[in-house]
Amino acid sequence: MSLLMPPEWAKHERTWLAFPAADYTQQEDAYLAWSEVANTAAEYEPVTVLVDPKEVQIAKKYLSEQIEIIICPLDDAWIRDFGATFVFDGQNLAAVNWVFNGWGSAQSAGFDVENDARVATFMANHVAAKLINSELVNEGGGIHTNGSGLLLATETVQLGIERNPDWTRLEVEAELNSKLGTEKVIWIRRGLTRDYETYGTKGHIDIVACFANESTLLVHDQQDESHPDYSVTHEV
């Protein structure tokens, strides 16, 4: 089995989103924001939106008719994190199903993630992709690849005690590389400060740094020395 996660700029067939739940924080603003993204993207490419059974009628009011709506039980709307990580298995489509435990906070914060934890499998089945299960607790926003062997990750995410307390750094690296087709994991020590507040992700890489192409890295740059993220970004 030789898997490869393509970079974000690679050609893709469609965009996936998950529609916000009715009890979502700032409900109306969330509906408007998510639907604007979905409706705009749908003008250029196919878009699929997963919608909780209780939200179908609301979703239809906000989403354009050209969007594919699929009913799927959901707890939250951050499908980048709990959804499938699509990869290539040779010439065939496959989907990595990481363990999702609510960004390491589900048990302590007391919120449900059972539905979200099943979404990756649901997505794989829907597109008939080969399902690749992993025992690593991980989220899509916690990884970023240049598509040519390099992977960005954060020590406080994959190596954090809230996610993978029994894994060593070498074991985590081996699992990421085997499931994503990468060769080297570049570890960022920590994420942005606010990401460690209540309901944060504890340091996701996707708001710290990303590859713009195979050899160009974009990094969050905080120039205000009094800002708590000044030291974070200068460490990177």
End-to-end separation in angstroms reads: 33 Å
Task: Tally the beta strands.
Answer: 12
The best one-word shape is globular
- CATH-derived architecture: 5-stranded Propeller
Q: How much of the sequence is in beta strands?
A: 15-25%
Q: What class would the helix/strand composition place it in?
A: alpha/beta
Number of helices: 8
Helix and strand pattern: EEHEHEHEEHHEEEHHEEEH
Radius of gyration, CA atoms, in whole angstroms: 18 Å
Assign the CATH class: Alpha Beta
Number of domains: 1
> Stretches where pLDDT falls below 50 for ≥5 residues?
none
Main sheet attributes: strand count, strand direction, barrel closure: 4 strands, mixed
What name does CATH use for the topology? L-arginine/glycine Amidinotransferase, Chain A
Strand arrangement in the largest pleated sheet: 1-5-6-7
Average of per-residue pLDDT values: 95
Description:
The chain has 236 residues and is an alpha/beta fold. The chain has a single domain (3-235), classed as L-arginine/glycine Amidinotransferase, Chain A. Helix content is 26%, strand content 24%. The protein has eight helices and twelve strands. The protein has helices at residues 27-41, 56-62, 79-82, 106-109, 119-126, 155-158, 169-180, 229-235; strands at residues 3-4, 15-18, 47-51, 68-71, 85-89, 92-99, 130-137, 144-145, 150-154, 184-188, 209-213, 216-219. The strands form four sheets. It has a four-stranded mixed β-sheet with strand order 1-5-6-7, sandwiched between helices. A hairpin with a 2-residue loop joins strand 5 (85-89) and strand 6 (92-99). The protein is globular, with a radius of gyration of 18 Å.
